[in-house]
Amino acid sequence: MPAFVLAGLAPSSSTVVERGVPFQLGHKAFYRPQSCFSRDLAVLSAVVHRRQRQQQQQQQHGTAPPPLPPLHVCDAMAGSGVRSMRYLLQAEADCVLCNEGDRANAACLHGNLSSAAAAAASPGGEWSAADTPAGGRVWTVQAAGGRQRRCELVHEEAASLLARCRLEGRFFDLIDCDSFGASTSVIGAALSAVRYGGLVCLTHTAGTVAGGRDPWSALALYGQHLAPVPSANEQGLRMLIGLAYREALARRLSVQPLWSLYSSHGPVWRTMLLVDRERSQPGSKAAAGGADYGYSLHWPGSGESACCGWHDMPAALRAAGCNGGGSSCSSGSSGSSSGEPSEQPLLSGPLWLGPLHSLSHLQQVQAEAETRGWLQGDGGGGRSSSSSSSAGPALPATRKGGVSSLQQLLGLMLEEAEAEEAASSRPPASDAHAAAGQQQQQQQQQQQQQQRGLPPWYLRMNDVGRAGSLTGPPSRDALAEELRRRGHVTARTHIEPGALRTTATMSEAVEAAVALGSRRRQHQVAEHTYT
């Protein structure tokens, strides 16, 4: 990809270059360089998805490759406008609707989008701009080859804008909602305004909700009960996808996560969803989520976890020792922390329990990133000097062992996706309750995990050491190799540097750690807190 040199921008201390696209920050413009990787993934997904649509059209008509289908993008919460610029320039979108609710940021957006339009027109093309009656602005780009493209800036509340587009019959191939906080109202509006087979990128930053520290907000905003569990960061992704899944069902739609990203700065949870018509019959178990939508249960004393589909909930509660209506189970409080059968589990849900990634999509995203040179010397975000290349210095990791490059991030996400696919291809187990009492838990969990693929949680090494009363946490990489040797599907995860996603139960992980040489303490700690 050639570097973009944008016209009309005088270099200044507020000029930023991201993946070769320079832009300026106004006094009100929000920009976080650590989110560069999420914008990389979104742009690459747009390119890959467009190419897939072209291939589908060719297969349907059996002719020579047709031209690339149009790509219409809505950037619902633009901030500095860098997303809109990158969709226009790097994804070569035909139409970008850039929305920013804060009119105080209009001057910054005018300058950035004007420069993007000039770059899109060169070489040899023309561009023009005109104000709209509603106080926005429209840029029209006429390329040298005759192709016409358009970028429109509006200032509306995001959910209202998407609802208006839906009523006007204006649908998008990709809707990007980079929201702050929960912003749950925009999810349904985005699902209603995307084309069948289109993409919706959702974001939330509700860390206290994801961590189970604000149960009332979880109920009010997401319609879920969320407990404080060790894999809270993954729970934050699954609660977002779970809400989107429920909203999609109400509209007779289906959603499939193409990738799901947790970033510790913020923290921020993001997911890119493929949205299409729901093919299952209304009222069927498949249409209502089957094994992909349900509840997770966690026993703090033993560190074990289990999950069940929404339709298995009464049996799961009985097997877990709850009466189905007792306050101790429904509130998520636990009983004894000794791991005995009487211990009450922590309940979270309903959540998305299915895969977080699409292996084939991520493989194509990685190939496209390699083609563009985004995996060499990569990083891409930072204050500008004279450089405008497609790659830049690696961003500093925001936590020890965290992700610092797009190449590293894609490698971890692909490892997760491969494990999810491998676990899903295991032979199905016979029907059983989705969650069991502590006495039968290990056998039942193995059956559940074979039914659902990779479980919807991860095991932290500190928790393995605590659950097994070991003298210290085991080595993550050594434990991963030992679990694979024992026949368990195991992968590292980008969500938590010191954790593994695996089909092994906690007790099996402890056994493997002991086999590697970890020693047990004489006295087990009785209290368990998660941070």
UniProtKB/TrEMBL annotation:
Keyword terms, alphabetized: Methyltransferase, RNA-binding, S-adenosyl-L-methionine, Transferase, tRNA processing, tRNA-binding
Composition bias type Low complexity, residue spans: 422-451
Keyword presence, Methyltransferase: yes
Any Pfam family the entry gives: TRM
Region (Disordered): 328-351, 363-401, 417-452
A GO term from the CC aspect: nucleus
EC number: 2.1.1.216
Main enzyme class: transferase
Molecular function per GO: tRNA (guanine(26)-N2)-dimethyltransferase activity; tRNA binding
Spans traversing the lipid bilayer: none
Swiss-Prot/TrEMBL catalytic activity: guanosine(26) in tRNA + 2 S-adenosyl-L-methionine = N(2)-dimethylguanosine(26) in tRNA + 2 S-adenosyl-L-homocysteine + 2 H(+)
GO BP of this protein: tRNA N2-guanine methylation
Family as reported in the entry's similarity comment: Belongs to the class I-like SAM-binding methyltransferase superfamily. Trm1 family.
Protein name (record): tRNA (guanine(26)-N(2))-dimethyltransferase
Species in which this protein is naturally found: Chlorella sorokiniana (Freshwater green alga)
